[in-house]
């Protein structure tokens, strides 16, 4: 079987990440419109959907996910998110966790995959290298077809690297809570052509996953190594060449403390859930 080079490994990993990611939709005048993104995970027998707090706050009854071209599903279960210190614009945590009820899990069926616990990048040490990837659903790449009564959600796959330490100070982020990655929309490489192009504004990508894809020796059909290391939350107005995300440790510590599940404890993040 063919040995994969690293760019091929990244592309294959992105296809797997796509199956683990959902596109949140909102109804406007009875028609679905793009809203945000999320990532499905599984811990033991429990299943969750992770996203950003601003995606669902005060909108939990208005958002859906697609489970096919013609069917929307409002998710049931226990939904929690952090409280903003002042406004969401100043919130650098911005996390939401939806513990899905059995009826919702049954309805989802095999429409999506759920990430296994051993693929959560808890205690991940970020390297300043282009081994990171985001998979989400920008609003500008999604279209509703009124004739066919269907929504096409086109994913945006972007390879990137973490920003240097001085950018964290500039954007008022903490590297034990956040990760900041580069995003120069004018220098995006198209997967199919290899040509440079202008990327989309990342509105709608809030809640998407940031994946670490290490160098590895793999052949076609092999299971690829990847880790979910953050959920992306913000395209900062202070500098539009970066994205801000929240470390996966913040999510897993919330889940571990709230639901008493067996998860590796973070050595990076200490979370007091009473303050959330």
Describe this entry's structure for a reader:
This protein is α+β, with helices and mostly antiparallel strands. It has one domain: Thrombin, subunit H (Beta Barrel). 16% of the residues lie in helices and 32% in strands. The protein is built from five helices and 17 strands. Strands 5-4-1-2-3-7-6 form a seven-stranded antiparallel sheet. Strand 13 and strand 14 (196-197) form a beta hairpin. The chain is globular, with a radius of gyration of 18 Å. The termini are far apart. The model has no long low-confidence stretch (mean pLDDT 89).
CATH fold type? Thrombin, subunit H
Which strand order spans the largest sheet, edge to edge or round the barrel? 5-4-1-2-3-7-6
Alpha-carbon distance between the two ends: 50 Å
Topology as a string of helices (H) and strands (E): HEEEHEEEEHEEEEHEEEEEEH
Would you count the extended β strands for me?
A: 17
Q: Shape, please?
A: globular
Structural class: alpha+beta
Please tally the helical runs, counting DSSP H or I stretches of 4 or more residues: 5
- Measured on Cα atoms, how large is the radius of gyration? 18 Å
Keywords:
Thrombin, subunit H; six-stranded antiparallel β-sheet; 276 residues; alpha+beta; 5 helices; 17 strands
Q: What is the gist of this entry?
A:
With 276 residues, this protein is of the alpha+beta class. It has helices at 6-19, 53-56, 102-108, 165-170, 248-259, and strands at residues 21-28, 31-43, 46-51, 63-66, 72-73, 77-81, 96-100, 132-136, 142-145, 150-153, 156-160, 178-182, 188-189, 196-197, 209-212, 227-234, 242-247.
């Amino acid at each position: 079987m063919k040995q994969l080079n690293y760019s091929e490994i990244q592309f294959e990993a992105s296809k797997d990440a796509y199956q683990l990611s959902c596109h949140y939709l909102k109804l406007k005048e009875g028609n679905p419109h793009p809203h945000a993104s999320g990532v499905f995970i599984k811990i033991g027998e429990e299943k969750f959907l992770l996203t950003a707090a601003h995606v669902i706050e005060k909108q939990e009854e208005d958002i859906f996910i697609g489970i096919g071209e013609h069917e929307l599903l409002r998710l049931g279960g226990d939904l929690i998110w952090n409280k903003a210190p002042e406004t969401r614009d100043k919130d650098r945590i911005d996390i939401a966790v939806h513990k899905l009820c059995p009826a919702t899990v049954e309805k989802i069926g095999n429409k999506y995959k759920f990430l296994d616990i051993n693929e959560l990048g808890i205690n991940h040490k970020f390297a300043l290298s282009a081994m990171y990837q985001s998979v989400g659903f920008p609003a500008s790449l999604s279209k509703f077809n009124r004739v066919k009564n269907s929504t096409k959600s086109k994913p945006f796959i972007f390879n990137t690297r973490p920003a240097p330490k001085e950018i964290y100070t500039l954007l008022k982020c903490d590297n034990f809570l956040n990760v900041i990655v580069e995003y120069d929309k004018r220098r995006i490489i198209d997967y199919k052509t290899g040509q440079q192009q202008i990327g989309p504004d990342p509105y709608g990508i809030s809640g998407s996953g940031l994946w670490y894809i290490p160098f590895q020796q793999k052949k076609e059909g092999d299971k690829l190594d990847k880790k979910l290391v953050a959920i992306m939350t913000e395209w900062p107005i202070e500098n539009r060449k970066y994205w801000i995300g929240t470390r996966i440790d913040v999510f897993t510590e919330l889940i571990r403390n709230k639901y008493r599940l067996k998860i590796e404890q973070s050595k990076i993040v200490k979370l007091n859930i009473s303050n959330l």
